[in-house]
Amino acid sequence: MNDWGRPLWIAHRGGGRAAPENTLAAIHAGAAAGFRMVEFDVMLSRDGVPVLIHDDTLERTTDGRGAVAAHDFAALRRLDAGSWHGPAFAGEAIPTLGEAIDLLIGLDLDANIEIKPAPGHARATGDTVARMVAARWPAGRTLPLFSSFDFDALDAARARAPEVPRGLLFEAVPDDWRTQMRALGAVSLHCDHSRLDAERLADIVGAGIPLLCYTVNQADRAAALIAAGVRGLFTDCLDLPGQVAGC
């Protein structure tokens, strides 16, 4: 556990490469590998149900076609979201955020919930995700961490559930990161480790901001980031923590 109260290692999209991403099977895989924190993406169906999926479209991770936001939840639920990963996961369903929350609670997991709106649905997605987490998360348990590349989605989540902490998510960290963090009341900054230079890293760490990096799949890079003060590593390789000394 980091000194900011969350685990260093975070299973990317639930279970990294061990299971089909953004499924309940993935979250189970992350927990089974010893991870105490998982990350997953949430988008809205056409009828406003928050579901776990990364892409705006269905083709890569399901047997469906077209935009996620063009399908009602009932149609999304009939899709196979597991066979693309392997026959052992055939029939794995697209889960709802509510189901994921129940599983997190049952497995005693921390989570980074990435709000990933379809185009034109930023504020609705942020509001819906925040409303559900605020309503269903048990009192007395550490709240999950929201993040998003979309400023408006994260702002809507802040407005709906200001008590749920927020992380500002970038590919490359812009020069105005401090201004954006203040505007959103963000508690952490998340970015692509491959687009993070040493000077920017030192600036963020020196400011006392918890810095989380994605997607770190090499032991030497993980060790260097940890040594430099990075507080969280999203990884697809569930055996990576055991390869990094002291972790």
From TrEMBL:
<dbReference type="InterPro" id="IPR030395">
    <property type="entry name" value="GP_PDE_dom"/>
</dbReference>
<dbReference type="InterPro" id="IPR017946">
    <property type="entry name" value="PLC-like_Pdiesterase_TIM-brl"/>
</dbReference>
<dbReference type="Pfam" id="PF03009">
    <property type="entry name" value="GDPD"/>
</dbReference>
<dbReference type="GO" id="GO:0008081">
    <property type="term" value="F:phosphoric diester hydrolase activity"/>
</dbReference>
<protein>
    <submittedName>
        <fullName>Glycerophosphoryl diester phosphodiesterase</fullName>
    </submittedName>
</protein>
<dbReference type="GO" id="GO:0006629">
    <property type="term" value="P:lipid metabolic process"/>
</dbReference>
<feature type="domain" description="GP-PDE">
    <location>
        <begin position="7"/>
        <end position="245"/>
    </location>
</feature>
